[in-house]
């Protein structure tokens, strides 16, 4: 079974990632009769949480991208280009400015509400565009995202918050420590929700009339998908920051060989997303060791090249 | 039986379907014909509840389509519309299996799988079952969608221009397959057709629409008459009787 092989590769990659870093951690020092106390601490407090955060973000953002693509029936959108991530940042900034004493969970919820409203607005605008060409859809998302972004930047500039805003926009896993990433486990629950409802999303991806014909409620499926995408985006933005191209690239790659049946595609997107971010994070940690480049920056570079390749080889499907 | 009562569709001031009251016959093939903009597809979409009506009532076996749960209607009536140009990358078999969804709720039983295979075979798609929809020609894709609605196994099958994009050979094959489905599986098939002669040769009942109203309806020999078609299409159409069929010659 190919998926099993992929999971094994992912696990090996994850285990390997535990050994990369400035302070020396090796299997030998961990499993010797007298384990190295410091190495063990580094492992438990920093390395394992980081690895888990990376994989949770990869999995959930990948699946969120897939679902968003089905909801808008367009392959060229992802939470980072549909106004979701930008509106989540805006919400997070609003929470930081207006209620600085709010705990992380509270801020996340505010960001989620904003993300929900932003993504819903995106869908609403799309409904108003009668003859939508394939390329108009991501353009609308980009325009909407830029509008949110400029509001955020304007206030962030005035409130001296530009650095935080930048952190929300650029996923960086170097700050992940035990106790600071656990919110991300919720995204795993949301990914499982998406898998349970996989058939519904596949059907919704075939259009409203198609969905109604099969006796399902199109608007309810849309609402569920919107909720999953917004919550995942908000949690990722609040904890580590957005990772570009992930939600775009991984579902498109997976679609090439498994197709768009979400029941089959979601496990692959989950594993592939985790692997993609893991690779980017590892790359960011080794290219100029002992310094680090944020995983999101690597993802941007690798992702844009891979996506261009995808576009060029599948140009027939753009039209 | 499907019954439309005073069904109307209005876009602003424009009346697309104007107070149509109609009983669709049970069994056999019924074709809706008429010029562009007559409201044929709109009527079909409203009858099958995929488009809301401005006013009026549609009853399917006495069930009001506005208030009956979608899943109940999905086991009685299937609709195939012409908006499938933008398709997901599903295989033919996956698509046809979704036709069983109203019965299986996503967990197909052995019986459901048999339905799927039968529908695939009926539409001559055996060799293409594992192909992705976006790798098929327009005609093959059309057949896959028809296989899906047949697989839904409803008494009523509504098709909006099922011959769209099919060449002559595949159009004939499609109509024959639909005729067999109507005759052997006892389905009531209602479709919008543009080709008068296909409608005439394969239908039991014709409904001619014009300006949002039902202008005429009846058996093919009652509709395939120069005076009737003149009133529907604003065109002089002569009718020939060839091998028992009523054929319109409107090319000159």
Automatic annotation (TrEMBL), chain A:
GO process terms (BP): siderophore-iron import into cell
Gene3D superfamilies the UniProt entry points to: ABC transporter involved in vitamin B12 uptake, BtuC
Pfam families: FecCD (PF01032)
Keywords: Cell membrane, Membrane, Transmembrane, Transmembrane helix, Transport
MF terms (GO), sorted A to Z: transmembrane transporter activity
TM annotation in the entry: 51-72, 84-102, 108-126, 133-157, 183-203, 224-245, 265-284, 291-312
GO cellular component, one term: plasma membrane
Protein's cellular compartments: Cell membrane
Membrane topology: Multi-pass membrane protein
Alphabetized InterPro entries for the sequence: ABC_BtuC-like (IPR037294), ABC_transptr_permease_BtuC (IPR000522)
Top-level taxon of origin: Bacteria
Assigned protein family: Belongs to the binding-protein-dependent transport system permease family. FecCD subfamily.
Name assigned to this protein: ABC transporter permease
Organism the protein comes from: Pyxidicoccus fallax
The organism's taxonomic lineage, starting at the top: Bacteria, Pseudomonadati, Myxococcota, Myxococcia, Myxococcales
Automatic annotation (TrEMBL), chain B:
Top-level lineage group: Bacteria
Gene3D superfamilies found in the cross-reference section: P-loop containing nucleotide triphosphate hydrolases
Pfam family, one: ABC_tran
Keywords, comma-separated and alphabetical: ATP-binding, Cell membrane, Ion transport, Iron, Iron transport, Membrane, Nucleotide-binding, Transport
Residue ranges constituting the ABC transporter domain according to the UniProt record: 2-236
Official protein name in the record: ATP-binding cassette domain-containing protein
PANTHER family for this protein: IRON(3+)-HYDROXAMATE IMPORT ATP-BINDING PROTEIN FHUC, PETROBACTIN IMPORT ATP-BINDING PROTEIN YCLP
GO terms of biological process kind: iron ion transport
GO molecular function: ATP binding; ATP hydrolysis activity
Family matches, as PROSITE patterns: ABC_TRANSPORTER_1, ABC_TRANSPORTER_2
SUPFAM superfamilies named among the record's database cross-references: P-loop containing nucleoside triphosphate hydrolases (SSF52540)
Keyword Cell cycle in record: no
Keyword Acyltransferase among record annotations: no
Membrane topology: Peripheral membrane protein
Compartments where located: Cell membrane
